[in-house]
Structures are given as C-alpha cells and as structure tokens.
Design a protein that fits this description.
Layout lengths: L1 H5 L10 H26 L11 H35 L3 H23 L3 H37 L1
Helix pairs in contact: 2-3, 2-5, 3-4, 4-5
The chain binds protoporphyrin IX containing FE (2 copies).
The site of one protoporphyrin IX containing FE has 23 residues, from helix 2, helix 3, helix 4 and helix 5.
Length: about 160
C-alpha cells in the first residue's frame, strides 16, 4: 500500500500530438506573417500611388488570424500543460521564459491596436518585433531540453 503511494506515476504533462502540431502551426504562422509584414514594410518598393504595399495588408490579415488561433492554443496549454508542469517543478526556467514571451507578445500586440501616442506605439512595435523574432528560439530551446530529458529518463 505504502509502496504504491510512493510509486504513483507523475501526471503526464507532455502536450499530445495534435496539441503539439497546433503549437508548431500557430507559431510558424505568426512568425511567417510577421516576417512578411517586415519585408513588405521595410524592403519592398511601393507600387505607384499606394500608401502601403499590398503584401503588408495581407500579412497583417494573416497575422490577426494566426493570433486568434495562437491564443486559443495558448489558452488550452495553460490548463493542461503550463500549470501542471509548473507544479511538478520540471523545466521551469525555459518553460516559464516561453510563457512570458507569449504574454509579452500579447501585451505589446494589444498595444499596437490601441496605443494612440506615436512614440509609445513605436516602442511597443520595436518590443513586439524583437520578442517575435526570438520566439522560435525560445520554443526550440524548450522543446529540445524537454526531449533530451525524456531520453535521459528512458535510458
Ligand atoms: C511555466 C511554463 C512551462 C513549464 C514549466 C513547462 C514544462 C514542460 C515539461 C516538464 C515538458 C516535458 C513533458 C514530458 O515529456 O513529460 C514540456 C514539454 C513541452 N512543452 Fe512545456 N512548459 C511550459 C510552457 C510551455 C509553453 C508556453 C509551450 C508552448 C507555447 C510549451 C510547449 C511544450 C512542448 C511542445 C513540449 C513537448 C516537447 C516534446 O517532447 O516534443 N511549454 N514542457
Ligand atoms: C503570441 C504571439 C503574437 C501575438 C499575440 C501577436 C499579436 C499582434 C497584434 C495584435 C498585432 C497588431 C496587428 C495590427 O496592427 O493589425 C501584431 C503586429 C505585428 N506582429 Fe505580432 N503577434 C505575435 C507574434 C509575432 C511574431 C512571432 C512576430 C515575428 C516577427 C510578430 C511580428 C509582428 C509585426 C512585424 C507586426 C506589425 C508591427 C507594427 O504594426 O508596427 N508577431 N502582432
């Protein structure tokens, strides 16, 4: 009886296959549409008489859709991955760093919609872009560390 209690298996916190796919797709779409906007805004020549490049508009339409999808995925992860993993105390540092990235991207992204002061908006934009470009690195570190641990557990 005591033996059984001591050997109670840990609750599985690894996101399932579908949830992992949803994480990778939403992250990839957010990144690709964000980068497309940057390219259209800063690099592509403006077509005649246009105030902004058409790709810029399309990139933000896609980015907005990816944001809604990404937030749903992040919300589902919060209760079945982030909180239970935190309670187990495993991979806290880079896991929490990744969650913080998302929270700050949400905050600065919200700022891009509603900040009216030009200077403050520019600050939110720079912060958002800086965080966004390193988000894939944060995800890669977290996933590779989690996988390495899994292989070490199995060995
Ligand atoms: C405080 C926050 C977090 C903690 C403590 C944490 C902890 C962990 C742990 C312990 C594992 C290994 C699970 C196992 O194999 O048993 C893991 C895997 C994973 N985590 Fe997190 N995590 C956090 C946040 C996040 C966030 C925000 C995301 C995505 C946006 C994420 C995505 C993943 C993925 C995709 C895996 C699976 C990697 C694989 O084996 O393929 N995690 N995490
Ligand atoms: C959690 C993830 C993310 C959320 C919630 C998010 C949200 C948002 C929102 C709400 C906007 C404003 C849209 C508009 O003005 O029409 C925005 C703009 C933008 N996002 Fe993201 N985003 C995320 C990730 C990323 C990533 C990974 C990148 C990659 C670089 C990125 C790059 C951009 C860029 C370049 C803009 C336009 C900036 C500007 O208008 O000054 N975002 N994002």
């Amino acid at each position: 009886m005591h033996e059984a209690l001591h050997h109670r298996p840990r609750k599985a916190v690894r996101p399932g296959r579908r949830q992992r796919l949803a994480i990778y797709w939403s992250s990839a779409l957010l990144l690709a549409s964000g980068l497309a906007w940057l390219i259209a805004h800063y690099l592509l020549p403006l077509p005649e008489f246009a105030a902004r490049h058409p790709l810029e508009t399309w990139a933000m339409r896609l980015h907005g859709a990816a944001t809604l999808f990404g937030l749903a995925v992040f919300g589902s992860l919060w209760s079945n991955h982030v909180l239970p993993a935190w309670k187990q105390g495993r991979h806290r540092s880079h896991g929490a760093a990744l969650a913080l990235f998302w929270l700050l991207l949400i905050l600065t992204g919200y700022g891009l919609y509603y900040l009216s002061d030009e200077e403050v908006r520019a600050l939110a934009s720079t912060g958002h872009i800086a965080l966004g470009t390193v988000l894939p690195l944060g995800l890669a570190v977290h996933v590779s560390q989690a996988r390495r641990q899994k292989h070490a557990d199995l060995a």
